[in-house]
Amino acid sequence: MTPNDRTLPPEALDDWAAELRERFDLAEEDVPIALILDLARDVANGVARPAAPFSAFVAGLVAGRTGGSPDDVRAAVSAISQLALAHGRD
Hints:
This protein has helices at about 10-25, 35-45, 50-65, 70-85. It is mainly α and about 90 residues long. About 70% of the residues lie in helices and about 0% in strands. The protein has four helices and no strands.
């Protein structure tokens, strides 16, 4: 992989998501690309760029511990995005 290969067009994310879904037997709604990218943006802008992947991991962990449904994912992502957007405003 060359450095330029690391910047993927949106359709490549779809391909990667499909590969992950197949490997881990996930439904399409289990891998909400836009939701996770929005979370990463909110955290990167509200906290720091390196906090984005860590926060996405935490969202998955929290969602899994609360049941793991798509609604649980959305709730965890929403809570973390709200924290990120409020971060540093105190």
